[in-house]
Design a protein that fits this description.
Length: 99
């Protein structure tokens, strides 16, 4: 009834193994980023969404060569599928220092 076939020895071994607490930290804004766009046209938006998706993938994975993973180049062809929302912000041109 409690033979090897039943899995009891394995269960007993697993229960006796020491456990270690696992800790995680929530990272605010991990799946968000900002890019500059030249205008509000659909072409500029498409380019910006590709950049956003790439930047978020690098942030989440920690790997700048993430696009070498099979299928991710295909994902960048339609980045709008992965974006929940976006918005535009108007900013004054960056300061320039000239001499």
């Amino acid at each position: 009834m409690f033979g090897v076939e039943s899995g009891w020895p394995l269960l007993l071994i697993l229960l006796l193994l020491p456990t270690h607490p696992v800790m995680a930290v929530r990272v605010k804004g991990l799946h968000q980023t900002t890019v500059l766009v030249v205008n509000r046209s659909s072409g500029a938006r498409r380019i910006a969404l590709r950049q956003v998706l790439f930047k978020v993938l690098v942030k989440v994975s920690g790997d700048p060569s993430i696009l070498q993973v099979a299928g991710l180049q295909l994902a960048l062809e339609s980045p709008q599928r992965f974006v929940q929302e976006f918005f535009y912000q108007n900013h004054i041109h960056p300061l320039r220092l000239t001499r």
